[in-house]
Amino acid sequence: xxxxxxxxxSKEKVPLFKFILIGDQSVGKSCIVQRYQNxxxxxxIKATIxxxxxxxxxxxxxxxxxxxxxxTAGQEQFRSVIRGFYRGSAAVFIVYSVNQKESxxxxxIWMNEIxxxxxxxxxKVLVGNKCDLSREVQTEEAESFMNNNKFSLFFETSAKTGxxxxxxxxxxxxxxxxxYFSSESFRQATRVNKKSADPINIIKSxxxxxxxxxxxxxxQKNQNQSSCC
Length: 229
Prior knowledge:
Oligomer: single chain
Largest sheet: 6 strands, mixed
Family: Belongs to the small GTPase superfamily. Rab family.
CATH architecture: 3-Layer(aba) Sandwich
Strand order of the largest sheet: 2-3-1-4-5-6
CATH topology: Rossmann fold
Strand content: 15-25%
GO molecular function, one term: GTPase activity
Helix content: 25-40%
Pfam families: Ras (PF00071)
Structural class: alpha/beta
């Protein structure tokens, strides 16, 4: 990063970037986010209903960036709601489970969602989670999918052990920052201020226009639905 870029970064203080995690139910998206946020792992975590989020400050070179990380539900009935959250996202993690071949086979469906609803320059990160378990998806197969679909990064992670979880977010944040300074269209598409990007405001706006099977997100979040992460 050159001096002019560092100056621009310092003027903006701490820039905010939206990340979104997508993929089938039970591939471990929530566990990845939990591991990254709290450095912990819990079994039988509740299934995500609609969307949930965290915020995290990340050190990139000599500066800080703030990540707003959106954890989305994998169930098909929430797809229409989730589509709105691609807007303004700088990076998308497409997650599958290495011990569940079906979740890998469904990646083409998620790729279609990205192509239709995300910015064309969004940083795409392929994540094979649960690499601590016996696998049904080989690394070579995933690497081939990555290359054929022009992903920027690929990681095999374990939310349980923490393997590659932090590294995936840090390396993605670096790529996002480089893209931010090199592409005007990307910069415009991902430029958000902290007020407009406040997760509470975003969820409120969606709850006023969308329904989660007839209920608001806040009501459904209180339901006890469990899923292996």
